[in-house]
Automatic annotation (TrEMBL), chain B:
Superkingdom of the source species: Bacteria
Assembly description: NDH-1 is composed of 14 different subunits. Subunits NuoB, C, D, E, F, and G constitute the peripheral sector of the complex.
Gene3D superfamilies referenced in this protein's UniProt entry, alphabetically: NADH:ubiquinone oxidoreductase, 30kDa subunit (3.30.460.80)
A Pfam match: Complex1_30kDa
Protein topology in the membrane: Peripheral membrane protein
Domain NADH:ubiquinone oxidoreductase 30kDa subunit: 33-157
A GO term for molecular function: NADH dehydrogenase (ubiquinone) activity
Top enzyme class: translocase
GO CC annotation, single: plasma membrane
Protein's name according to its UniProt entry: NADH-quinone oxidoreductase subunit C
Reaction(s) catalysed by this chain's protein: a quinone + NADH + 5 H(+)(in) = a quinol + NAD(+) + 4 H(+)(out)
Function text: NDH-1 shuttles electrons from NADH, via FMN and iron-sulfur (Fe-S) centers, to quinones in the respiratory chain. The immediate electron acceptor for the enzyme in this species is believed to be a menaquinone. Couples the redox reaction to proton translocation (for every two electrons transferred, four hydrogen ions are translocated across the cytoplasmic membrane), and thus conserves the redox energy in a proton gradient.
Subcellular location: Cell membrane
Length: 401, 165
């Protein structure tokens, strides 16, 4: 390091000393970055005493792709594909949040046609189901249940297929644009989507019988990794992690953005049915229940999209695209409910003439949800730590950005 | 509780000098706070039963550019019980000398959420947080040189003797 001021390297030296000391008394165990249960490239340094984890030191940044630096040199429209790559399991939700933020800065958020709003909500909720299916399936694998994983991926594949039909891409869609959409839904999408909902509902019942109510699964997850509500709030947890601790807090209802105020859905929370409120099972169960709620939202969107907001030949999803994306100089913090929690974008725009933001900060929900692991990992068994990691359901693409 | 009431609450508690200005032009008005007392302000806003700003939504370090010569931190607080949002801003002039990084008080004692956010701001912009328990780099490697999100950052050509394309 070329900085000589020792004040700035104190923390690093403290850390090196801690690891060196721990290596004498206890054992230092590296979990990841290739460990399958760390869900990507997360590296955890565990200071262990036998089977007991004394301390967890997460190391992140292996998937850092300079999102914020990119956003400072590209226009608002050009950055949408980069937002897709943050939480790559729920690309639609990311670009929806980004696009809404830009639209509000431009002052055109009230002029978006209803049909576009409903299509956006429809694809976001489809993507939310796909993301939660991965969370549920991989959580099963972490615990040792292989079958649910295959079932979840089989059902997720239908969603991927539909979204590919709409946008042309399987995972990274670039479908929602500022002021509109890339294309209207393809002809027959609504019917196929309805078929999927009918097909998928009984599959969730099966999945619940296989995993949710499975006694082995409950024994591994109930009363494990209990996250009290005050700790969750103080650590900035949001989404299913916060709701699993028993707080009804969902930005879709709090902020009432897009078409959500017109839709009817419940906010599932953890109740401690199998153990303590805020344990791994509760967080898992919140996601399962959210899939059901998303199905409800999808059905309502389809009803409206097939009746009063029907496709017409003159409907053009690009009609409202602004010619120039030049907001007035201002700061704006946009928050929306991504699949993992509060997804925020903080824009600083400083000039009337440019389409490029001065500074963008993205607040990934996984980032904050993961930081609580240091707290949850104190004094637990290594096997329970795996269960806790899985229940937090983070995506490293969003943690590192 | 409105923006003006919060402002009044803060000036009653800490005196008029605590608020150095305000920005009302945008959709989200912001309070400019005296930089050295941000931790006290956050603690008061979190614990006061009339505000209960218990949730730190976002903490962003900002480099205001080479000409401005200022660094700042922007706090987005939100209150779950009252469904309020508040923006606080602090900033300090700095001449970009790497031996004297801009330095602000850490608010980790108030919000644990700020732990990683502050580490990220340190990593990316070289903003030092006084009193942070573990201020190491977060996303970049520990031996990385320079602070990538600064406006005057020149891309590194080599890392450990390996050419970066």
């Amino acid at each position: 390091m070329n900085i000589r001021n020792s004040k700035y390297s104190e923390a690093l030296e403290r850390y090196h000393k801690k690891i060196a000391d721990a290596a004498v008394e206890d054992m230092v165990l590296n979990m990841g970055p290739q460990h399958p249960s760390t869900h990507g490239v997360l590296r955890l340094e565990l200071i262990t005493d036998g089977e007991i984890v004394k301390e967890v030191i997460p190391h992140i940044g292996y998937l850092h792709r300079c999102f914020e630096k990119h956003a400072e040199s590209l226009t608002y429209q050009q950055t949408i594909p980069f937002t897709d790559r943050m939480d790559y399991l729920a690309s639609m939700n990311n670009s929806h949040a980004w696009v809404m933020g830009v639209e509000r800065m431009l002052g055109i958020d009230k002029d978006i046609p209803k049909r576009i709003e409903y299509i956006r909500v429809l694809v976001c909720e489809l993507n939310r189901i796909a993301s939660h299916l991965i969370a549920i399936g991989t959580y099963g694998i972490d615990i040792g249940a292989f079958t649910p994983f295959l079932w979840c991926f089989r059902d997720r594949e239908h969603i991927m297929g539909m979204l590919e039909w709409a946008s042309g891409s399987r995972m990274l869609y670039n479908y929602i644009w500022v002021g509109g959409l890339f294309y209207d839904l393809p002809v027959g999408f609504e019917e196929r989507c309805r078929e999927f909902v009918d097909y998928f509902k009984p599959k969730m019942v099966e999945l619940n019988r296989l995993l949710t109510d499975n006694q082995i699964f409950i024994s591994r997850t109930a009363n494990v990794g209990v996250l009290p509500l005050d700790v969750a709030i103080n650590y900035g947890c949001s989404g299913p992690v916060l709701r699993g601790s028993g707080l009804k807090y969902d930005l879709r209802r709090i902020d009432n953005y897009s078409a959500y105020p017109e839709l009817d859905f419940e906010i599932p929370i953890g109740t401690g049915k199998m153990g303590t409120t805020g344990d791994c099972w509760d967080r898992y169960k919140v996601r399962v229940d959210e899939v059901e709620e998303s199905l409800k939202i999808i059905s309502q969107c389809l009803d409206r999209l097939q009746k009063e907001l029907k496709r017409t030949p003159e409907f053009d999803p690009r009609a409202k695209l602004p010619r120039k994306l030049t907001p007035k100089p201002q700061d704006y913090y946009m928050r929306a409910e991504g699949t993992k929690g509060e997804l925020g974008f903080y824009f600083i725009h400083d000039s009337n003439r440019t389409e490029i933001p001065f500074r963008v900060k993205s607040r990934g929900p996984s980032f904050c949800n993961l930081s609580v692991l240091e707290e949850l990992g104190k004094g637990v068994l290594i096997a329970d730590l795996i269960a806790t990691i899985g229940s937090l359901d983070f995506v490293l693409g969003e943690v590192d950005r | 509780m409105s923006f003006d009431e919060i402002k009044l609450l803060l000036t009653d508690k800490f005196g008029d000098s605590i608020i150095t200005g305000e920005e009302r032009t945008g959709m989200q008005p912001a309070l400019l706070i005296e930089a050295d007392r941000i931790a006290d302000v956050c603690l008061e806003l979190r614990n006061n039963p009339r505000t209960y700003f218990d949730f730190l939504s976002c903490l962003s370090g900002v480099d205001y550019g080479v000409e401005a010569g200022r660094f700042g931190v922007v706090y987005h607080l939100s209150s779950i019980p009252y469904n309020l949002q508040l923006v606080l801003k602090i900033s300090k002039p700095n001449d970009r000398d790497l031996e004297e990084l801009p330095s602000f008080p850490s608010i980790t004692s108030v919000y644990r959420a700020s732990d990683w956010h502050e580490r990220e701001a340190y990593d990316m912009l070289g903003i030092y947080f006084e009193g942070h328990p573990d201020l190491r780099r977060l996303l970049m490697p520990d031996d990385w040189e320079g602070f990538p999100l600064r406006k005057d950052y020149a891309n590194a050509e080599y890392y450990k003797g390996i050419k970066i394309d």
